[in-house]
Amino acid sequence: MIVQKFGGIAMQSEEMRNYSMNHILDGIKQYEKIVVVVSAIGRLGDPYATDSLINLSEAFASDYVARDLVASCGELIASAVLSAELHQFGVSNTVLHGKQTGIVTAGDFGDATLEAIDTSNIIKSLEQVDCVIIPGFQGMDKLGNVMTLGRGGSDLTAVALADSLQASHVEFFKDVPGVLTGDPNFVSDYEKYDFLSFDEFLTLLNGDNTIVQKRAAILAKEKAIPLYVRGIASSETGTWITN
């Protein structure tokens, strides 16, 4: 089993989602069962992006419970869209959300910590379908409130699920072919790393480089979960990050 994580760019358009679905099909062919974690569709300015949802009302600035609830909706929408399109693609799948995921959170709204994951429902679902889709970035506290995991929290969801499910690794699909020596938006002379240690990778996550959430990378290092960063629109070999 593997966990695949698709970010906002991978979910942004029908063309990009077709790339995503082909990667999901490839994952099923190779590993039989996969768990897919998705982020909200697009980025600020797109109607269902997290920041766009939060900006619907100034009142969310002082109501943390309501803000986390609306912030979590982008991933739910993305999950529903991907699930429906996968069904058209002929892929058996289901979406688990809210309490169904078994993800229990605690701490502060907007920057919650993962307290526990009960994987029994996910495992049971994988007996019936080939692909389980989980909305990233969120969990529920013991009172049933939705809590979000901070910026880039879907990455943390993916790594934590991989640990709890004993998945072989996590695949992150990006708009770049892997971890690069420079930002292709600003420089033309860059190379792709084929392999990185976690220590090497973590040093690259300082500053503006957010290719994987740092909390997620730290957890992956602690739990010895290999990460594979690769391009969404490419079959090119990506970057492996391991201990």
TrEMBL record:
<dbReference type="InterPro" id="IPR001048">
    <property type="entry name" value="Asp/Glu/Uridylate_kinase"/>
</dbReference>
<dbReference type="GO" id="GO:0009090">
    <property type="term" value="P:homoserine biosynthetic process"/>
</dbReference>
<keyword id="KW-0418">Kinase</keyword>
<dbReference type="InterPro" id="IPR036393">
    <property type="entry name" value="AceGlu_kinase-like_sf"/>
</dbReference>
<dbReference type="GO" id="GO:0004072">
    <property type="term" value="F:aspartate kinase activity"/>
</dbReference>
<protein>
    <recommendedName>
        <fullName>aspartate kinase</fullName>
        <ecNumber>2.7.2.4</ecNumber>
    </recommendedName>
</protein>
<keyword id="KW-0067">ATP-binding</keyword>
<keyword id="KW-0547">Nucleotide-binding</keyword>
<keyword id="KW-0808">Transferase</keyword>
<dbReference type="GO" id="GO:0005829">
    <property type="term" value="C:cytosol"/>
</dbReference>
<dbReference type="GO" id="GO:0009089">
    <property type="term" value="P:lysine biosynthetic process via diaminopimelate"/>
</dbReference>
<dbReference type="Pfam" id="PF00696">
    <property type="entry name" value="AA_kinase"/>
</dbReference>
<comment type="similarity">
    <text>Belongs to the aspartokinase family.</text>
</comment>
<dbReference type="GO" id="GO:0005524">
    <property type="term" value="F:ATP binding"/>
</dbReference>
<feature type="domain" description="Aspartate/glutamate/uridylate kinase">
    <location>
        <begin position="1"/>
        <end position="230"/>
    </location>
</feature>
